Amino acid sequence: MTTASSSSTLTGTVLRFERASIHDGPGLRTVLFLMGCPLHCPWCSTPESSSLVPQRGYNQDQCTLCGKCISACSALALAINVAEKKVTCDLERCRLCFNCFQTCPHNAIKKYGFITTVNETIEQIRKDEIFYFHSGGGVTISGGEPFYQPEFTSTILQECKKLGIHTAVESCMHVPFDMIAISLPWIDHLYADLKQMDKYLHQLWLGKDNLLILKNLKKVDASDFPVAVTVRIPLIPGFNDSNQNLKETVEFCANLDKIIAIEVLPYHRLGSDTYRYLDLDYQCKDLIPPSDEYLFERATFMRKLAGTLPVIIGSGLNQN
Ligand code: SF4
Ligand code: SF4
Predict the structure, then answer these.
(1) How far is it, in rounded angstroms, from Cα 96 to Cα 165?
(2) Of the candidates 155, 176, 293, 308, which lies 20 to 30 Å from 116 by C-alpha distance?
(3) For the chain, which domains are there?
(4) Cα–Cα distance, 13 to 24 (Å, whole number)
(5) Closest Cα to atom 4, ligand 1: which residue?
(6) Which atom of ligand 2 has the smallest separation from the CA of 107?
(7) Which ligand number lies closest to the CA of residue 78?
(8) Residues sharing a CB contact under 8 Å with residue 145, sequence separation 6 or more, in sequence order
């Protein structure tokens, strides 16, 4: 149990804050993106958030090969590759001290994430309090996977509720239920991903099956807390857009009382540059995003099956 005094110094790893978002819950939202995720979806729009520790990126296009970062690296992790006109990093030597990031005069080195306390986070959130009041908004914790830092997420949510701020969480739901349960009393709205009903296809694309996700959704539904749940499907052509999958998704959701809507999100490529900066392979580079018409047609198909359960089309700006 986190006490009042310890909660102020409790730390978490935050990727970034986003202010005045209109895509992550009702009204104007402050979105707190946390680091760390147990799933590695090939279409993820925030690959820089997958690790629980801050990450170092490098944009060759902005590098002038001035060599200042190399002098700043006491771990001797950096070198200039003359043939390829870039700075290379020996990951086994890199201690993630970020001296190179602070030294680079051309913003070619990126730092993804920082460690901060609950108090500092709440201070940031409180700067937007007036907007929550006027717009019916609040705070949304996203990621990464918020429940992957269970104590930090739970304490932030609890502090928000003490301040009367509406709370939402966006989750992939692939974590042990205990990590979710600790936050449930403080969540007004849970946005839960349900990417594929077939456990074999889920395993094939994501490396893990969907059993934990389905179980967690049922446990949230059976809990005593009045959390509203919106199930989100990032529509990935060839993975989960079939009639069979959409039908099974609707049937599953219609049986759970706390699910108030299904939200269909379009797949997009907003994170593709970040894969390059992190020297990661972007496996979805050849995947064409669905057209608006196709998205609408798929949502209409689900609506015919969903009865009174609303099926809405979202922006899909944050896809994990
Ligand atoms: S983060 Fe630190 S150790 Fe890693 S390359 Fe940069 S300066 Fe060197
Ligand atoms: S300091 Fe920046 S611009 Fe200079 S070599 Fe390093 S990454 Fe390139």
Answers:
(1) 35
(2) 176
(3) 4-52+114-313 (3.20.20.70), 55-110 (3.30.70.20)
(4) 20
(5) 94
(6) 2
(7) 1
(8) 34, 36, 37, 38, 39, 171, 172, 174, 175, 320
